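Summary of Year 1 activities. Much of the first year was spent building the evaluation harness for sequence design. The harness presents a backbone, in tokenized form, and records the residue chosen at every position. We chose the following record to illustrate the format because it has been used consistently in internal testing since the harness was completed.
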């Protein structure tokens, strides 16, 4: 398995944000965490990343217990809403960041950065600053930065949020390609069912801190397990 979470519980003050969340994601799978705002999706992702710790439950990464492992030792790439690009660094420096803190040799860092800038078709823009890029270009830099250290696990929290429709579609294709070419295990959070159905091999539907259903897009559509899933997937948003 790539990622396993078991019995995750998390409380913020009086609010039970996660109430016994369990699921398994196989290596090489691309899975969507789908559900309405406030349902606990970001919290699950942050716990998998090690940015947050659960009150109860376990996290396993690549077949090993990682429940208490520090974020820097988990070797996970993530693109989170709160983790925007470093504004005072060039595109190149942004993409190099994860490699530099891992103390890789300079020549290797340069080579890998070039490779990933080419992969997201931003070669030639390495010396620009984030403010000089479009929204879609920035998200591609964020993807390159997440992937450059060579991780096989990628977490994306609403990676297409705040972008216009055309750029969202482009980025979706990027992600599909990266996933296929690199054999990544990926989890992305979305509240957009169409995006989830299109990109994910399986979908985990979450609401109010609980998993409502796990299944392929077809299963979720054709055989919704709960009334919530039926109305959420059936609704046009
Ligand atoms: P989603 O990503 O599905 O919108 P979140 O995981 O962000 O859901 O949030 C779930 C609930 O937890 C929300 O009610 C949110 O207000 C609350 N929450 C999340 N993070 C914190 C925090 N650091 N402190 C207090 N409450 C939080
Ligand atoms: Mg969220």
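For this record, the design step produced the sequence shown next.
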């Amino acid at each position: 398995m790539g990622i396993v979470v078991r019995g995750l519980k998390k409380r913020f003050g009086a609010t039970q944000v996660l109430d016994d969340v369990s699921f398994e994601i196989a290596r090489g799978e691309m899975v969507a965490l789908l559900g309405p705002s406030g349902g606990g999706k970001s919290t699950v992702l942050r716990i998998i990343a090690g940015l947050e710790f659960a009150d109860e439950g376990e996290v396993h990464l690549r077949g090993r217990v990682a429940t208490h492992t520090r974020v820097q030792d988990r070797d996970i790439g993530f693109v989170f809403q709160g983790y925007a690009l470093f504004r005072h660094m060039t595109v190149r420096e942004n993409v190099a960041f994860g490699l530099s803190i891992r103390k890789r040799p300079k020549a290797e860092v340069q080579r890998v950065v070039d490779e990933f800038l080419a992969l997201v078709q931003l070669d030639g823009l390495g010396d620009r600053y984030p403010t000089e890029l479009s929204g879609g270009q920035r998200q591609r830099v964020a993807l390159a930065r997440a992937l450059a250290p060579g991780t096989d696990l990628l977490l994306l929290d609403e990676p297409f949020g705040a972008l216009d429709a055309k750029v969202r579609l482009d980025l979706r294709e990027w992600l599909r390609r990266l996933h296929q070419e690199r054999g990544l295990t990926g989890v992305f959070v979305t509240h957009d069912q169409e995006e989830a159905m299109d990109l994910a091999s399986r979908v985990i539907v979450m609401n109010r801190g609980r998993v409502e259903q796990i299944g392929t897009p077809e299963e979720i559509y054709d055989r919704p397990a709960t009334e919530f899933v039926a109305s959420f997937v059936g609704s046009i948003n």
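The first strand starts at residue 3 and ends at 12. Quantitative recovery figures across the full test set are reported in Table 2.
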